[in-house]
Specification:
The protein has 173 residues and is an alpha+beta fold. It is 39% helix and 23% strand. The protein has a five-stranded mixed sheet with strand order 1-2-3-4-5, sandwiched between helices.
Length: 173
Amino acid sequence: MLHIRRATLDDIPALCDLSGAIQEGHRAAHPAYFKPHEVTPMMIAEYEAQLADANTYVYIGEKDGMVVGHIIAQIVERPENSYQYAVRYLYVAEMGVFKAHRSAGYGEQLMQQTFELAKSLGLNRVILNVWAFNERAIAFYTRQGFVVRDMRMEAILDEEELLNRQDAKDAKR
């Protein structure tokens, strides 16, 4: 069983490492978007701010005293506008499990913690974004009960960037 606890400032190095594992996978698929992983003062400050924010919940998953994964969830309140009703939900801003610990049920336990958090806060939905190339994550989120709610699309007008994207796809095959 995974031990899940709220993260502290002492966990920032582990959060940076987990973020790096996510970042490198994203960079491999979209080098035009994603920078190489590097722990910077900006990254550390972002985690410090999340840990201090009352509407952000940062959880660490540990197995035998070793950090194996994390999840960061934020309360989002969107006011009513001319087209949509007001809505409050829990947004999963970041989630990751170290590659060596995947497929052991740790991601499911972290997500279950997030679902329980949402219910305890009186929220009836959890929302997240996932990149279309990340088929493993999409399959995981689908198994957790997530469904596609909307889609974001882009048209790449720069031919060099388009070629770089094709090269990344070819290298993956």
